[in-house]
Write a structure and sequence with these properties.
mainly alpha; 9 helices; binds zinc ion
């Protein structure tokens, strides 16, 4: 479709799409902030429009520009000067940067918009899990069939750019992802008499399995354990225990430093950008012919 453009024009187009991806990600991040604060309470994420949680003044569009407005307002509400959490610009910046990276990696393929939706949902899962210790079914339930549908589309559309083009592998990934964590949870319940992980984690890994297949699930579990132990040890060494666990949660979260969901998300994002290369490198290292 871009065959008749010169190299210079292609460069310009590439720059424009990169900037658009970054801005779009920031705007989606702004919407994710609304979802993070409202979804755990079961509130609508569409109405009413955003307002200051303290003075309830509706936030105008020019005070709602991703990251920029927070900086201009000096991290305070325009009318009542209540401090605005740094979590808002953080979510916007992370989403913006991830959208940009997805575009830089997958370019003008079908994979770009699909993986942008996926990373946005993973950012949402992370921040809800950190704040509320839950993983929203609103993400994982539609995510599971969507992953399988994407594999079906990739099978029919050549050069879709998607990682997985085999619906059978997507289904295998879904069951392996859900099954392995569910099994670990049962094992933990049997041996340690406490839950190893929440059912939300089971559904999250099942969803990523549907997107990335069986090999993806294995690598994501390895990466998630790696991140989990690394960060867990760092937090213990830093003497920082889990903060602010609400009273009714306390019982089931004893001995648990952070929710596991964010580590699964980190594993999923690393897989998205580098997974197939990591697996290829590993297989060539142990001399097994490629399976990807
Ligand atoms: Zn206010």
């Amino acid at each position: 479709m871009f065959d008749n453009l010169t190299a210079n024009q292609l460069d310009t187009l590439h720059t424009i799409f990169s900037v658009v991806s970054l801005i779009m990600g920031g705007m989606i991040g702004s919407f994710l902030n609304v979802c993070v604060s409202r979804m755990p309470q079961g509130l609508s994420v569409i109405k009413p429009r955003s307002r200051c949680p303290k003075c309830e003044t509706p936030i105008t569009w020019y005070d709602n520009l991703p990251v920029i407005s927070w900086l201009i307002l000096g991290a305070k509400c325009r009318s009542c000067k209540t401090p605005i959490s740094w979590q808002y610009p953080l979510v916007e910046a992370i989403t913006g940067i991830l959208f940009l990276l997805v575009f830089l990696k997958f370019g003008l393929t079908l994979a770009s918009p699909i993986y942008m939706i996926l990373v946005a949902s993973l950012v949402l899962v992370t921040f809800i899990d950190l704040a509320d210790w839950t993983i929203p079914n609103e993400v994982t339930f539609p995510g599971m069939p969507l992953g399988i549908v994407c594999a079906l589309i990739a099978m029919m559309v050549p050069e879709s750019g998607l990682h997985l083009d085999d619906p059978i592998m997507a289904i295998a990934g879904l069951f392996a992802g859900g099954g392995i964590l569910y099994g670990l949870d049962l094992l933990s319940l049997l041996l340690l008499k406490k839950r190893g992980m929440g059912f939300g984690d089971v559904k999250l890994l099942a969803m990523l399995g549907a997107f990335f297949g069986l090999w993806g699930v294995f690598l994501i579990i390895i990466l998630a354990s790696f991140f989990g132990s690394g960060i867990g040890i760092t937090l213990i060494l830093a003497g920082r225990k889990q903060t602010a666990v609400s009273e009714d949660d306390e019982e089931e979260n004893v001995g648990h430093y952070l929710p596991f969901g964010p580590y699964i998300v980190m594993g999923g994002i690393v897989y998205l950008f580098y997974g197939p290369q990591i697996i290829e490198t590993y297989l060539s290292y142990i001399n097994v012919p490629g399976v990807m």
